[in-house]
Amino acid sequence: MRYDVAIIGGGPGGYVAAIRMGQLGLRVALIERARVGGVCLNQGCIPTKALYSATKLLEQAERANEFGIAFPPPEVDIAGLRSWKEGIVSRLVDGVERLLQANGVTVINAEGAVTAPGEISLSLGETIAADRIVLALGASPVEIPGFSFRDPLIWSSDDALGLTEVPERLLVIGGGVIGLELAVIYSRLGGNVTVLELMPEILPGVDLDRRAIVQVKQGLKKHGIVLRLGAAASVYEKTGDGLRVRTESGDEFPADRILL
C-alpha cells in the first residue's frame, strides 16, 4: 500500500499532523502500536488531572466541619475510581479516532520501522510505502541507575496511574510536576508520601517565582507530604517490612513502593 504521508506515532504530534494533512487532501497512514492520543491522553495529563480532581473531594470533605457540615467519612472505591478515570480517557480517545476517520486517515495498529527510503515495515508482517515519513515517536518513562521497572515494587507514572493499590508508604523520586501531582493524589487516598528531589528546589525547570514555589510547598505540607531536597537516591533494598531507599548522603527512607 502506498500513501502520500506515513506517520509513526499517534500522540499529539502525530495525530494532529495526520488530521491536518488529511484535511489538505493527502492520503495519510498513522501507525500507532497502542491507543491514539499518546502519553498525554492515555498515561499523562488527562488521567492525572482526572484523579487530581476526583481526590480533591476527599480534601474538601475533611474541611466540611469548618463550615458546619458533617457527614460520615467518605470511603474510596479504588476499582470504581480507576474505572471512572479510564472512562474519561476512553471517551477522549474515541473522539480523536472519530476525527481521524472523518478526515480520511488510515490508522494502523502496529509498530513501524523505517527500513528504506520511503518504506516502513510493520510488526504485522506487512510493508507500506510513502512519499513522506513523519516520526512522532513520543516519550516513555525513564529509569535511573539502581532502580529498574522490572521490579514490580518500582513504579513508573504509568503504574501509578493504573491505580491498582494505595501503598501505605510511597516514596516519590523526583519533585517535578508529575511527581508532585501523583504525590498529592496518593496522599489524598491515604498514603504516607515522601518526595526526594535531586535539585535544591522542587519543580526544577518550571518557570515559577519564589513566592509561587513557597505556596506549592505549603500546600504539600498541608497534605502531610514530606519533602527532601538535594537528595540523590542511590540504591534501595528489600527489608522484612518493605523497602529502604538510601541517598548518596547516607540518609535512609522506608517505603512500600517507589515511584520514579
- What summary fits the major beta sheet? 6 strands, mixed
| Helix percent band | 25-40%
Q: How do the strands line up in the largest sheet?
A: 3-2-1-6-5-4
Total helical elements: 7
- SSE class: alpha/beta
Quick check: average pLDDT? 96
Q: Based on DSSP secondary structure assignment, what is the total number of beta strands?
A: 14
Describe the protein's architecture and organization.
It is a single chain. Strands 3-2-1-6-5-4 form a 6-stranded mixed sheet, with helices on one face. Strands 7-14-8-9-10 form a 5-stranded parallel sheet. Strand 4 (112-116) and strand 5 form a beta hairpin. It is α/β, with parallel strands linked by helices and 260 residues long. It has helices at residues 12-23, 38-43, 45-62, 78-102, 157-162, 177-188, 210-222, and strands spanning 2-8, 28-32, 106-109, 112-116, 119-122, 127-135, 154-155, 169-173, 192-197, 226-229, 233-239, 242-247, 252-255, 257-259. Helix content is 35%, strand content 27%.
